[in-house]
Amino acid sequence: NAGVTQTPKFQVLKTGQSMTLQCAQDMNHEYMSWYRQDPGMGLRLIHYSVGAGITDQGEVPNGYNVSRSTTEDFPLRLLSAAPSQTSVYFCASSKFWTGGPYEQYFGPGTRLTVT
Amino acid sequence: AQTVTQSQPEMSVQEAETVTLSCTYDTSESDYYLFWYKQPPSRQMILVIRQEAYKQQNATENRFSVNFQKAAKSFSLKISDSQLGDAAMYFCAYRSGYSGGGADGLTFGKGTHLIIQP
Description:
heterodimer, A: 115 residues, seven-stranded mixed sheet, four-stranded antiparallel sheet, 49% strand, B: 118 residues, six-stranded mixed sheet, globular
């Protein structure tokens, strides 16, 4: 199993450009999520999905869109990039929460710089 | 909303010694889970250890153990026989134990940078 994969690993955007960060998992996990990590901060939740066709906002959703058309994929879209979105982005997946301490598996991250 | 606080931005320890990283959290829930994640320079997030709030026994994974004090809302990580490969950022994280709350993902602390002196 490849686990959780993310592409690209690095990306530089100009202010106002749009792009999609890709995330895929091959563990048949229902739950997928996106976090951002800024210097001196822990990871913060952007959006999450509990299954195909179901998404919801996390702590810091502004400026990002998500969709979940398949169990495997959960892309994150930046609509109009801003310098404040310079960060490292992590995708994670786990079994859907039904009462157990299911581990979240993280992808390798995407370092995004917006100039 | 839950909060997680790691009060030590950086810790340093001699190789083979023991070090304890602190974590406190604030929640009104009684059912939850706590985690320690390691993030080496490679950036990969690696689960170190987890603790269920309903279990009184402290979790242990080889050289890693926790001191879980539920009443004090404290969840410290002890690393015994520190090794050079333990050098990393360590994050404490909280997840709700309730079906809807668990979907809100993990709440992280700001991390502790652990330095291992050879």
